[in-house]
Design a protein that fits this description.
mainly alpha, Growth Hormone, Chain: A, single chain
Length: 423
C-alpha cells in the first residue's frame, strides 16, 4: 500500500504527468512540429517585409494585418468553439492554414510576391486564427480534464516556446542560404503532423462537453458578462492586454534591432527570437512544477515587473550577448504572466463556456497586439526602435505596480472565501 501511495504521489508531482493522457501526447508532438513551421514562417515574413521596404511602419503593419481580424472575429470564434466539435474544427482550420502557407511559398518561389499579396494572405490567416485559437486552447481541457490542466497548459506552453526557439533558428539559416520561399514551403509540410495527430486521437477519451445552443450574439454577451463578473478572470484579461500592447511590439521590431543595432542579418534575428523563446521555455517549465492554481493572480501580475525591466534593458544595449541575455529574461517572466493568466481562465470556467473565455484571451493577447504593433511601428518611424521599446518598458512597469496591488487583493479575498467555506 505504501509503494502504491508513493507511486501516486510521484505521479501527482511529475512534471510530465499530462502525458498519461494518450490523446494529449498525440496533440503535443503533432503541434510541436507544426509550430516549428509556424514560427519559421513568422521570421521569414518579417525579414521579407523588412528586406522589401526598410520600413518600421510596414513591419508593424504586416503584424497588424495578421492580428487585427482576431480583434473583430475572435469572440465569434469562441462561440463557434462552444457549439461544434473542437477536434473537427481544428482539423478544418489546420487545412486552411496549410493553404495560406502554400500560397505564400508558391508566390515567393516564383518571384512574383508583392506587398499587397503578403498583406492579403496575412488578413486571411488572421481570420483563420480567430476560430482556431479559441478551439485549440479550449481543446486542451477536453484532453486532460481539470486535474492535470495546469501541467498540460504549462507543458503546452513549454512546447510552444521550444518551437519559438527552434523555428526561428531553422528559418534564419534557410533564409540566409535559400530564401524566404523555402521557409514557407517548410511550414506548409509541417501542418500534416498536427492534422495526423488529430485524426489518430481516440474520440471516446476526449472529454464530452455539452454544446451550447444559445444564439451567437446572446452567447457572446453571456461570455463577456461571465468574465467581467469574475475578478480573477478580469485581471487575467488585463494582464494579457498589457503584454499584448506594451511587450509584443518588441517582438515585431526584432528585425530592426538585428539589422540596425546589432549589425547582423537573418541569422542574428534567428538568435534573438530563439533567446526570447528559450526564456519562455524555462518560464513554462517553472509553472509546470506547480501543483495547483494558488496565488496565480499575484504570480502573473508580479512577473510583469521583471518583464518591464528586461525590456528596458534590452532597448539600451548594442552588445549582442547582453541583448540575448535580456531577451531570455523577457521570455521567462512574460511566459509566467501569460500562462498563469490562461490557466486561471481555464480553471475557473465551466466547460460549456470555455471556448468563449479562450476567445476573450485571444482578443486580449492577439487582438490587441496589432494596435500595439501598429502604434509601435508608427512611433519607431519618428524616434527609432530603441527609444520606442524603452518607453514601452517604462510604461509597462508603472502599470504593473497597480495591477500587482489589485492581484494581491484578489488572492487574499479568494483565500478568505475558501477558509470561510471550509468552516
Amino acid at each position: 500500500m505504501q509503494i502504491e501511495a508513493d507511486a501516486n504521489l510521484t505521479e501527482q508531482h511529475s512534471i510530465i504527468r499530462a502525458f498519461k493522457h494518450r490523446n494529449f501526447t498525440y496533440y503535443f508532438f503533432g503541434q510541436s512540429i507544426s509550430l516549428i513551421g509556424t514560427f519559421s514562417q513568422m521570421l521569414a515574413i518579417s525579414w521579407l517585409v523588412w528586406r522589401m521596404t526598410d520600413s518600421p511602419f510596414l513591419l508593424g503593419a504586416i503584424n497588424f494585418a495578421v492580428q487585427f481580424p482576431m480583434l473583430i472575429l475572435a469572440l465569434i470564434g469562441g462561440a463557434v468553439a462552444d457549439r461544434y466539435d473542437r477536434r473537427k474544427l481544428m482539423i478544418a482550420m489546420q487545412i486552411l492554414c496549410m493553404l495560406q502557407a502554400f500560397l505564400l511559398a508558391f508566390l515567393t518561389l516564383k518571384g512574383i510576391v508583392s506587398l499587397w499579396q503578403i498583406f492579403a494572405l496575412g488578413v486571411f490567416l488572421g481570420c483563420v486564427y480567430s476560430f482556431e485559437f479559441p478551439a485549440r486552447n479550449a481543446f486542451i481541457t477536453d484532453l486532460v480534464g481539470k486535474k492535470d490542466l495546469l501541467n498540460a497548459v504549462s507543458l503546452n506552453g513549454a512546447m510552444l516556446h521550444a518551437a519559438r526557439m527552434i523555428g526561428p533558428m531553422i528559418a534564419g539559416w534557410i533564409v540566409a542560404w535559400r530564401g524566404e520561399g523555402e521557409c514557407f514551403l517548410f511550414n506548409t509540410l509541417t501542418f500534416m503532423a498536427l492534422i495526423t495527430a488529430l485524426l489518430m486521437m481516440k474520440r471516446d477519451k476526449i472529454l464530452h462537453v455539452e454544446k451550447d445552443k444559445t444564439p451567437f450574439l446572446p452567447a457572446i454577451v453571456h461570455g463577456i458578462k461571465h468574465m467581467w463578473g469574475e475578478p480573477g478572470l478580469k485581471l487575467g484579461f488585463i494582464i494579457l492586454a498589457i503584454v499584448s500592447l506594451l511587450i509584443m511590439p518588441l517582438v515585431y521590431m526584432l528585425p530592426i534591432f538585428a539589422d540596425q543595432v546589432f549589425g547582423g542579418g537573418a541569422i542574428t534575428l534567428g538568435w534573438l527570437m530563439a533567446a526570447a523563446a528559450g526564456g519562455s521555455f524555462i518560464g513554462a517549465l517553472i509553472l509546470a512544477h506547480r501543483k495547483n492554481s494558488d496565488k496565480l493572480s499575484t504570480i502573473s501580475a508580479a512577473a510583469l515587473i521583471p518583464v518591464s525591466i528586461s525590456v528596458f534593458a534590452f532597448s539600451q544595449t548594442s552588445t549582442l550577448w547582453i541583448g540575448l541575455l535580456t531577451l531570455v529574461l523577457v521570455g521567462i517572466f512574460d511566459t509566467i504572466a501569460i500562462a498563469g493568466s490562461i490557466t486561471l481562465l481555464q480553471y475557473t470556467t465551466p466547460g460549456h463556456l470555455r471556448g468563449r473565455m479562450m476567445s476573450l484571451f485571444v482578443t486580449a493577447f492577439m487582438g490587441f497586439a496589432p494596435i500595439g504593433s501598429l502604434a509601435g511601428g508608427t512611433v519607431a518611424r519618428e524616434i527609432g526602435a530603441p527609444m520606442t521599446i524603452s518607453a514601452c518598458g517604462v510604461l509597462c512597469l508603472i502599470i504593473s505596480l497597480f495591477v500587482l496591488i489589485k492581484a494581491r487583493r484578489i488572492d487574499v479575498s479568494s483565500k478568505r472565501f475558501c477558509e470561510d467555506s471550509s468552516k
